[in-house]
């Protein structure tokens, strides 16, 4: 998934400044976009680094939730416009590869086994709003602004649109995508793009609290729940019910269920085991 050096701006090749800052707080991993001088604009290096850190988090049995935030005054201003301009003279194959890397990142956040909570302060625009959109929970500072401004640049929010339609529904998605309008946090919350609005400067603290609450669950249960949330919208009613029955029956046989029930009855904290590698679909997925 790492882009070729030719696709990276010259300043990125030195490796002096990490594009993503990483820290741990118990079962919660913090990933902080670290290009504050350009409002954490997304370039090939940042996308690759974030993808790499998320893969590492999902492989770490000690991590049960991720908090995603931005360094400086903005969450993310979207695509790095200088990099986007340079890609205008790239080949169609290079442009498809670059687009695929962003799609892979958003899909990893949306469908991967580890929950992700976004802490948004300042601007979350275009691809930055897309990053927030694919997170499980979005906590926003009151002064934050959200928008999909691509049409005003002659661009199309094609990749983000796939997820935005799921998040806010067609009418809100049409309004956001066609007007390119920036909306305040409270409006984004009413649309379903944001879960909770807090005073400016408190989004990261509140997002961490939410992540710690999520991290109380077992990795197997969290991953399976996320899998169902990703797949069920694409199923018909009867197919969804068959899938749910298989999942319900399978989870009754897991060691986590036995541990969780025992811990509840014994009035103690559960001692969760690491999730098995290679996914959680021991029940056979949607085909049974």
Description:
The chain is α/β, with parallel strands linked by helices and about 290 residues long. About 45% of the residues lie in helices and about 15% in strands. It is built from eleven helices and nine strands. The protein has helices at about 45-60, 80-85, 90-110, 125-135, 160-170, 170-180, 185-190, 205-215, 220-230, 235-250, 255-265; strands spanning about 20-25, 30-35, 65-70, 115-120, 125, 135-140, 145, 180-185, 195-200. The protein has a six-stranded mixed β-sheet, with helices on both faces. Helix 1 runs parallel beside helix 3 (about 90-110) and helix 4 (about 125-135) packs parallel to helix 5 (about 160-170). The protein is globular and about 60 Å long. It starts with 19 loop residues before the first strand and ends in a 23-residue tail after the last helix. Mean pLDDT is about 90; it is low at about 1-15, about 275-280 and about 285-288.
What structural keywords apply?
288 residues; 9 strands; 14% strand; alpha/beta; 6-stranded mixed β-sheet; disordered C terminus
Poorly predicted sequence stretches spanning 5 or more consecutive residues: 1-14, 277-282, 284-288
Contiguous helical run count: 11
For this structure, the quaternary state is single chain
Strand content: 5-15%
- Compressed to H and E, one letter per element, the order equals EEHEHHEEHEEHHEHEHHHH
- The percent range for helix content is 40-55%
Main sheet record: 6 strands, mixed
Question: How far apart are the first and last residues' alpha carbons, in Å?
Answer: 31 Å
- The total beta strand count reads 9
Assign the structural class, choosing from mainly alpha, mainly beta, alpha/beta, alpha+beta, or little secondary structure. alpha/beta
